[in-house]
Amino acid sequence: MTKENNTDIDAIDSTNSKPDKITVVMKDNILKCDLNDGDESQLFTSMFGVDDKYAFDLLLTQAVSSRGHTSTDDKYNAVMPLLLDIAPQDALEGMLAVQMVASHNLAMEMTRRALVDGQTAEGVTQNVNRATKLMNVFKSQVETLQKYRAKWQQVIQVKHVTVNEGGKAIVGNVKKGEG
Prior knowledge:
By secondary structure, this protein is mainly alpha-helical. It has helices spanning 40-48, 53-65, 72-86, 91-114, 121-149; strands spanning 6-10, 21-27, 30-35. Helices cover 50% and strands 10% of the residues. The longest helix has 29 residues, at 121-149. It is flat and about 75 Å long. The model is unreliable at 1-19 (pLDDT under 50).
């Protein structure tokens, strides 16, 4: 994409609450996103959990840049629906969503590189190791997002307790006596 290249992107949303077209402009290595119809702040919040246009443009640039060298339309149309599906609720979730997309993209790139014809055994091993590490990072990011959304509340569920006849059971915090 050149420094001031405009591209129309189809916005994908199953609820139809998002605009049909988004105009993306690359200027000074930052993507600027303008809607042909609809409310921009709704798109900002839906995709990155932010209500600031500059933060939206920055996060969109970072997410799209993680796609590597593919055609312009493919970059946006592949990244935007993923971010809308993750549905970040705030800026921290938005940043984590961008990291998740980047980790996934890199893991898939390392997997692709491992499959290149004529690859040495060492090259295959290195790329598989990189892909595995990135997939573990992605898994950790998903777990972090789930914990963050649960507000870090730890829930311990006891599914089955058996107390035999004549047995005693105590439910609650138990502290060992001093005497």
